[in-house]
Amino acid sequence: MGQRRRGAARAAGSGRHRICMVSDFFYPNMGGVESHIYQLSQCLVEQGHKVVIATHAYGDRRGVRYLTRGLKVYYLPLQVMYNQSTSTTCFHSLPLLRCVFVRERITVVHAHSSFSAMAHDALFHAKTMGLNTVFTDHSLFGFADVSSVLTNKLLTVSLCDTNHIICVSYTSKENTVLRAGLDPEIVSVIPNAVDPTEFTPDPGRRDDSKITVVVVSRLVYRKGIDLLGGIIPELCAKHPDLCFLIGGEGPKRIVLEEVREKYQLHDRVRLLGALDHKDVRDVLVQGHIFLNTSLTEAFCMAIVEGASCGLQVVSTCVGGIPEVLPDEMVTLCEPTVRSLCDGLEIVIARKHSHLDAVVLETKNPF
Q: What EC number(s) would the UniProt record show (predicted)?
């Protein structure tokens, strides 16, 4: 043990760390947290740090796996309770996480997401072992409902002795500081980002004979899929050339299937199902407008990816979203069907006039 600590001290003294990213949410599960952890880990590896990731087993994906640049992932045999999150009792995770920390001679434990029970457990175990701890909060929580009250109490305990906390927006920072009773001085705001070389426009891939609205999201209540179910039939009735391209999977898919069936929109509403991250750009470049109907967001990576691919963004004005994009790239709306339809009408009219101008220019080049 003394030899391991001396090795960790030498690593810290050289400016290079051995970092363990911990979260219930990682590949093959898809989402913003998963992508963030992977990209951050790759950047740290590129800078010369040693990075390993600890998450729970996903189906038959258990044990140790290796990703790009030798990124090592531990898929631990922990029982999933709800929505890919494990139960938080600390005791069952102690031997597994402690084994990873000791075996890899970890110097910094970086936990992600308030929703992740593994993240809370890892912070607790790391503090008992004298390791440096960092926590990144990716979500916003309320203060009144039972779920939020319980999570906020857990967060207060988890973060009471954490060395530093990172939030993805100033709205998220304010929310986290209030929920956990933190000193704002130990909380930093580092906005999320995308690699623009991976999300480049390609006008040749889209069909300009119609207006395509792209939605890429988990199909869950928090993402406002019920709002989307109200928007689709109203706008499709007004605009015969409008169609929707929807990527993502979740329990609210049934809402969209019912709308498509009821209004006979099978040729205008395509449900692509779950997408691999590498396929997201190929879907985005087929559209003219990116629509986000979230009811709560700390940041929203999807609208950045959509804007990077050249789409005009229409989004609900919730959480940290107003901080993300400049006004000329996004139309912000209240989280209601009426407000979102009005916002989309404005952008659709703008797109129609632009496409008409392009057609006219093509017919009369001189």
A: 2.4.1.198
CA pair distance 83, 151, nearest whole angstrom: 15
Distance of alpha carbon 195 from alpha carbon 183, whole angstroms: 32
The CATH number covering residue 45 comes to 3.40.50.2000
Confidence of residue 1 (pLDDT cuts 50, 70, 90): very low
Strand pairing report for 85-86 and 80-82? antiparallel
- Count other C-beta atoms under 10 Å from residue 34's C-beta: 20
Q: What is the mean pLDDT of residues 112-118?
A: 90
Which residue, 122, 157, 189, sits at the end of a domain?
189
Q: Which amino acid is located at 1 in the chain?
A: M
User: pLDDT tens digits, residue range 334-353?
Assistant: 999 999 999 999 999 998 87
Q: Which residues, in sequence order, are CB contacts of 340 under 8 Å at separation 6+?
A: 227, 231, 291, 293, 314, 316, 333, 334
* Residue 326 belongs to domain spanning: 203-362
181 and 224 within one domain: no
Q: What is the bridge-based pairing of β-strands 242-247 and 269-273?
A: parallel
- If asked whether residues 223 and 170 sit together in one domain, one would say no
